[in-house]
Write a structure and sequence with these properties.
The protein is an alpha/beta fold and 527 residues long. The protein has 13 helices and 24 strands.
């Protein structure tokens, strides 16, 4: 097949894509026997003439002659994009590998290992998706928190209750990301995620995809054990030998894949006490901000907004006067701000969208970078820093999400009424003064950045924009050290994914899980 890049069509002519390709190559449209869209992106630099830009593969006769006629960097033979899973390991497995956590890293690792005969066991401290949804709805509606099954913990991981964004900047030379997307589609995700420049699934569709993946893993020989929290590990001669589940059940284990997610604080402490090498790492904290989605659409796409464009998103960055980075994080078009707490007496927020992104508000975290110089070099110091902020947020809102108008935040006074922007949340909120929970260097950086962001998105600094807090789980505050085979200093312990400090988001976590499976296949056979 021949691949063409930079094929541009207007929004109203997107059904004439093949005609445009034929015109570029000076062939008849009927000469195109097959085609496959590789990528679709939006070029909105000229808001009076927004274009769709395509990368597309076509099958025609006499490809070589055609290529010789039109020599161009944007016209070439389609490269092979095959993902290869090779089992080259010779070491015999004594026990089934155990994967801790069923977020993207653990789930995709389990999927590949099951597909190739390794029969992994996945232990998950939370519930299966069906029961997890019920627990979360109970928390949002009644305030009753299940500390092991919530927005952070449970089948699917924290990303299950998010926007389900899949975009990543990772270079995909081994086509692992492509394999991840193919698995998503095979299990019910929309096919367009394979080519959209900013693909997303949405929390509503993602839940069913996860159920389908679970059923497929079980059919291939894998196993899931829910409500099963890793509470201890036994190490003999620097090798993992046993694990303990729920402080009671002892299980023989010589390969432990840690895909815990970024909020498994008790697990991190246990691993640290057992001598697993880890270190502090930077992360970011801040607040969620809500605006009318219509305002964001108008700013990004102009007055002549076209429904095919979907709800507009944004990505904003700024360097504050003190050198700290300030940036938007986990932007959720047409979404909700959700109470994402996982510990009693602590409160944290996140963003979430359904596939259709059909709420009236856009929300995003506006976060500020922090580092060990702010909280200490001990690997547990970053966790305690998060906890202090989350405890203050809980106290400020008395268990409800603290919310403040942007103009009141700048004036350092408690909000008493909302403006024209109405809060769209999952979980109750209460009007507050968020300055009371933030360190000065965080609040001042946010106040400095938002007027700058207003120059890029008109209305971003409107006085009645809503701020909600606190956003403190942007990434793991620790990194568990591993070697090139993904093994820690304790033999048989493999830290992966976002919780271990090697990923950030659904796609990169899933990719890390697939890479772990590939590493495993280079060590062990599947007999």
């Amino acid at each position: 097949m021949i691949r063409l890049r930079q094929v541009k069509v207007s929004l109203d002519n997107r059904d004439k894509l093949l005609k445009k390709v034929a015109n570029i190559l000076h062939i008849n449209e009927t000469d195109i026997k097959e085609y496959k869209i590789i990528k679709e992106s939006i070029d909105a630099r000229n808001k009076r003439n927004i274009l769709l830009t395509y990368e597309i593969d076509i099958l025609v006769d006499n490809e070589e002659a055609l290529l010789n006629k039109y020599k161009s960097n944007d016209i070439f033979i389609s490269p092979s994009e095959e993902f290869i899973f090779e089992i080259t390991g010779t070491k015999k497995l004594n026990n089934r590998p155990i994967i801790v956590g069923s977020g993207p890293a653990g789930l995709f690792c389990a999927y590949l290992l099951s597909e190739h005969g390794y029969n992994p066991v996945v232990i998950e401290r939370g519930e299966c998706v069906e029961e997890r949804v019920k627990s979360i709805e109970t928390f949002w509606n009644k305030g009753k928190l299940n500390i092991n099954s919530n927005v952070q913990f449970g089948e699917g991981g924290a990303g299950t209750f998010s926007d389900g964004k899949l975009n990543t900047l990772v270079k995909d030379k081994e086509f692992i990301g492509k394999k991840v997307f193919e698995i998503f589609v095979e299990n019910g995700a929309p096919k367009e995620i394979m080519y959209l420049n900013k693909p997303h699934i949405g929390t509503d569709l993602l839940r069913q995809v996860i159920i389908n993946m679970r059923q497929k893993i079980i059919s291939m020989g894998g196993e899931f054990r829910y409500n099963s929290c890793l509470t201890d590990i036994e190490i003999i001669n620097n090798e993992i030998k046993f694990i303990e589940i729920n402080n009671s059940q002892k299980v023989e284990c010589d390969n432990l894949i840690l895909a815990t997610g970024h909020s498994a604080r008790d697990t991190f402490k246990m691993l640290y006490d057992k001598g697993i090498n880890m270190e502090s790492k930077p992360f970011a904290v801040g607040l969620r901000i809500e605006h009318p989605q219509e305002m964001i659409n108008k700013s990004q796409y102009g007055i002549s907004y076209h429904p095919y464009l979907g709800q507009a998103s944004y990505k904003l960055t700024y360097k504050a006067s003190d050198g700290r980075g300030v940036y938007s994080f986990c932007m959720c078009p047409g979404g909700y701000v959700v109470n994402a707490s996982s510990e009693e007496g602590h409160l944290v927020v996140n963003g979430m969208s359904n596939h259709n992104r059909d709420s009236k508000n856009a929300n995003s975290a506006i976060v500020v970078t922090v580092s060990p110089k702010d909280f200490g070099n001990n690997p547990m110091d970053g966790i305690e820093y998060q906890r202090r902020l989350e405890s203050l947020a809980y106290q400020l809102g008395n268990g409800k999400i603290p919310l403040q108008l942007y103009k009141d935040f700048c004036d350092n006074k408690k909000s008493t009424t909302l403006g024209s922007v109405k809060a769209i949340t999952k979980g109750d909120y209460t009007l507050s003064n968020l300055n009371e929970i933030l360190p000065d260097y965080i609040s001042s950086s946010i106040k400095e950045a938002i007027p700058i962001f207003d120059k890029k998105i008109q209305g971003f600094a409107r006085g009645d924009a809503l701020l909600l807090g606190i956003e403190s789980r942007t990434s793991s505050p620790i990194k568990i050290i591993r070697n090139d085979n993904y093994e820690s200093n304790v033999l048989g312990v493999y830290p992966i994914g976002e919780g271990a400090g090697y990923a950030g988001g659904i796609t990169t976590s899933a990719i890390d899980g697939v890479k772990m499976a590939l590493k495993f296949a280079k060590i062990y056979n599947n007999d």
